[in-house]
Amino acid sequence: MLTKKLAIDLGTANSIVYVKNKGISLMEPTVVAVSEEGDSILAVGSEAKKMLGRTPEDIVALRPLRSGVIADYRVTEILIKYLIRGAIGKSRFIKPDVVISIPAGATSVESRAVLEAAYSAGAKKAYLVPEPLAAAIGAGLPVSQPSGNIIVNIGGGTTEIAVVSLYGIVVHGSTRVGGNDFDDAIVQHLRREHGLVIGSETAEGVKINLGSAIGARSVDVIEVKGRDSVTGFPRIVEVSSAEINACMERDLERIAMAVKDVLESTPPELSSDILDKGIVLSGGTSQLKNIDKYISGYIGVPVHVADEPILCVVKGLGEVLDHLEMFSKSMIGR
Fold this sequence. Notes:
The structure is a single chain. The protein is of the alpha+beta class. The chain has three domains: 5-133 and 313-333, ATPase, nucleotide binding domain (Nucleotidyltransferase, domain 5), CATH 3.30.420; 135-177 and 248-309, ATPase, nucleotide binding domain (Nucleotidyltransferase, domain 5), CATH 3.30.420; 179-247, ATPase, substrate binding domain, subdomain 4 (Actin, Chain A, domain 4, Alpha-Beta Complex), CATH 3.90.640. The protein contains ten helices and 19 strands. It has a six-stranded mixed beta sheet with strand order 3-2-1-9-10-19, sandwiched between helices. The protein has a five-stranded mixed beta sheet with strand order 13-12-11-17-18, with helices on both faces. Strands 5-4-6 form a three-stranded antiparallel beta sheet.
């Protein structure tokens, strides 16, 4: 029997599974609902995400990864098992080879935790690939050539920047800022300025509807429902795009500064390549309106958003699955 081969983009916000010869088979939020009394798993993925902020005291809906690395080992193992079973079925006899993305700056302890979780979840062999390298491959950058290609992968919990050449990472940088930080900034702003308490899911909706890295000429307004921080009663307030954009500025600047730091450490020969080709953005948060224009204005280098940016990492991992020997030097195994 042929061994199944899977690629898993294990993200802070979403996890995506690719099955060799079949394509993307699963895309789920990286959320798990746990019963505190029975210490049992109640829901994973979309079903668990619906429970965020809506559970009784004996149920906790949580994200087992923070900034792309394991925050809760046991729950992460259950999540990986769920993703593997969702992709290949519940057969106990099929043990797949699995390639998983991990932040390029992850420590050896963090890397080992992901590998152990994969083996405990039923993997026959497990390998780790640096997330920005996988994103560069998935974005279609010519990583096999001796020329500079820069990828900025902006996820839910972290932003990773890498200059890639000859199947490897030449310069790497990261900052623990991502889409979740924008959501947190919106939550704090509404509580501070409007006395309105909202959850992260509502904040994400506000970001999607109003958020932009560069302020638009016209100001849009939407109604936001939440709880009054003083009376405790439900309340609706009107929020403008201008104030939402302003509260995200600090985190946007941290991302742009991290890109600047990587460019300053890049060898001159590769820098000239980057100036010609520009910077490519990937990851779910790269879909924030005008974030490419913001970074381009800050850095002075052309910036483009990749096609299907949220799928770049998993598509890159799929390419690695097909050419394991070619990328062996960049992978981490047990």
